[in-house]
Design brief:
Helices cover about 0% and strands about 60% of the residues. The protein contains no helices and six strands. The chain has strands at about 5, 10-15, 25-30, 30-35, 40-50, 50-60. The strands form two sheets. It has a four-stranded antiparallel beta sheet with strand order 3-4-5-6, with no helix packed on it. Strands 1-2 form a two-stranded antiparallel sheet.
Length: about 60
């Protein structure tokens, strides 16, 4: 699930799905999002929300 945090006092669920298996943690750094899963790190471009595009994977 992705939330729109434009207004932190009233979070809204954004109409976006990000397919991944077993997400554990995520870090957003500017226009990139790194998601830690059981088997790898998945890197996404979040510069054009609500579109989220997978741009890479790093194995653990």
């Amino acid at each position: 699930m992705v939330y729109d945090i434009t207004n932190p006092a009233a979070l809204e669920l954004a109409p976006v799905t990000v397919p991944m298996t077993d997400p554990y943690d995520l870090i957003v750094d500017g226009q990139r999002m790194i998601v830690s899963t059981k088997t790898d790190f998945q890197i996404f471009d979040v510069s054009q929300l609500p579109q989220i595009r997978k741009i890479g994977t790093i194995g653990k």
